[in-house]
Specification:
single chain, 145 residues, mainly alpha, two-stranded parallel sheet, 52% helix, globular
């Protein structure tokens, strides 16, 4: 696609897109503790969503490689929405998709500028640095033991 052609143009990568996709997609590594957290949230009846700055190629690879990625209620993906975090426009998309606003949204992100945008909207936020820190903060925020 367009993204791949731009990468090839700007780099010395000389193979085709099928060889590139797994290399690019593998920059995403599953975190077992976070996968387990998502399962426990869903078991408690709490809806969970993916909210990601990404592109179609990365999502195609992640869906094919990681079954846990299917275990969310909805996906707010920047390439589909025409806006990227921390643009306020995509945070509005999240509010519309979830039907929640302010503290009704608990948002986890590893990029501080993205978390700050959520906090500015009144969302509960967790700046993810490690699963060891994030999991207890999320469990406490939603009332899970």
């Amino acid at each position: 696609g367009e993204f791949f052609e731009e990468v090839r143009r700007r780099s010395s990568f000389c193979h085709g897109q099928p060889a590139f996709e797994p290399l690019f997609g593998d920059i995403f590594q599953p975190i077992p503790e976070m996968i387990a957290l998502n399962a426990s949230l869903r078991a408690a009846g709490i809806s969970t969503f993916i909210f990601s700055n990404t592109n179609e190629m990365a999502i195609r690879h992640i869906r094919a490689q990681y079954p846990f990625f299917a275990e969310f209620d909805a996906y707010i993906l920047s390439y589909e929405k025409g806006a990227m975090k921390p643009s306020p426009a995509i945070y509005e998309v999240v509010e519309h998709a979830t039907g929640a606003i302010g503290p009704g949204i608990l948002y986890i992100d590893d990029r501080l500028e993205n978390v700050e945008q959520g906090a500015a909207r009144g969302w509960q936020v967790v700046h993810h640095l490690s699963a060891q820190e994030t999991v207890p903060l999320v469990r406490k925020a939603v009332g899970l033991r």
